[in-house]
């Protein structure tokens, strides 16, 4: 028997004695960290802090006080409150210090919980039993929330490794009094209940999915903390303000709108303001669109429609604005004094057009014809 539990990033196998073995499935790990020091035999600095992965995007740092030889993929029992929890080692060694620095904590100052031991077969068996209860518990808890008429949504349920406690992740737009709900859940499932509120972006990261770019969601693969995204980020990058295209699977603005925002802000520092019209002797031109990285601005004589667009450089637009400030109107929008630059002619070309697809095929040798040529018949001397 072999099955994959992608919420934990593990593969469970069962031998002939019905004993379960757990292996790490690197393809299912959310917020995966690449260990680029894996092939170095002696790491530069050793540390007793390890990174442990639990369900979906929940991770934690724990102190290996017993100096147990741990490596990536080991299933360990760690300290919890109360009892113990079961998780998988995702990072150990010197790179944990870098992760702590990224999180803003230090190994000396932080109070980390302990790693008890490597998980025993009994621990793994109870852990797998707890995992099998999570889906039914979530469905039943949603029915209870509906019966109690609470304005909240149970997004996920995570059982502790010792099956004595469960964390209920919920989403709510306003403050919810769930004291009665905790009593009902504790009585229904005979466990300790912890309610933890998450946002729409955190829920999308826990569930996972594929974005409009065709890749795994960033909130599920590498984003730890979420920064607020505003529609001004789309305006700066000249992106159409279409809510359907700007929103992600969580219903909020896409986090990737902030990825290249700084580059666009730096590139637009020397650009003039777009609400200033350019006055010439033939007409008044209004801004329509901008190509930021090419340094080109398009203007039209009609402020409402993009008809008869004329492309000019940023330097030309700034020059006209400076002349208009002095009361001077240039003859045309284009700079007639500048020599026209010779642009290389772009021709169409492709691999198929340049060379034949069968150019590497072996050419068949032409076999000699088997037909024998008939020799001309000699005429006898007496024939005329």
Assembly context of the chains: single chain
Q: What's the total helix number? A: 10
Sheet with most strands: 5 strands, mixed, barrel
Helix percentage:
10-25%
Record field, number of beta strands: 15
Please state the CA-atom Rg, rounded to the nearest Å: 35 Å
Following the backbone from N to C, one meets helices and strands in this order, namely EEEEEEEHEHEEHEHHHHHEEEEHH
Written overview of the protein:
The protein is α+β, with helices and mostly antiparallel strands and 384 residues long. Helix content is 24%, strand content 22%. It has four domains: 2-120, no CATH class; 126-202, GMP Synthetase, Chain A, domain 3 (2-Layer Sandwich); 227-267, no CATH class; 278-325, no CATH class. It is built from ten helices and 15 strands. The protein has a five-stranded mixed β-barrel. Strand 10, helix 3 and strand 11 form a beta-alpha-beta unit. The protein is flat, with a radius of gyration of 35 Å. The termini are far apart.
